[in-house]
Design brief:
Layout (H helix, E strand, L loop, with lengths): L14 E11 L4 E10 L3 E5 L9 E6 L4 E11 L2 E11 L9 H10 L7
Length: about 120
Amino acid sequence: MANPESKENRRVGRRRTLLGATLVYGANLLTVDCMIRDWSDRGVRIELPTVVLLPERLWMIEHRMALAHEAKLVWHRGNLAGLELLVSRNLDPPTDPNLRGLRRIWMEKAPRVKQP
C-alpha cells in the first residue's frame, strides 16, 4: 500500500479539513466516528480515534451534509486511513429505500441548529 504522507503518490491536490464523519459497514451497519483531515475530488484521509480494522468497502457519512459516500479503503496505517470516494448518495430525502439505515445514522450524528 502507498505511504499515506507521500506527496508523490497523490494524483490530485488535497484540501486540509477538520470535519466529523461516521464510517458505516457490514450487514448490521456498524459505525465508527472519525475526522476527515484531507479531502480531494477522489478521496479523503481520515483519522480514527483508535486503531480499527476496516473492510475494503464501506460508507462514509459527513456529519454536516446529507450525503453518504460509498468508499473503498486504499490504505490504512495505525489510526489513519485513505478512502477513495466512489459514489455519493443524497440522504435528505433518501431516494433509495436501501439507504434508510444510513439516513437514520446521519440524523443521529448531524449537528443540531440552535433555535433562538
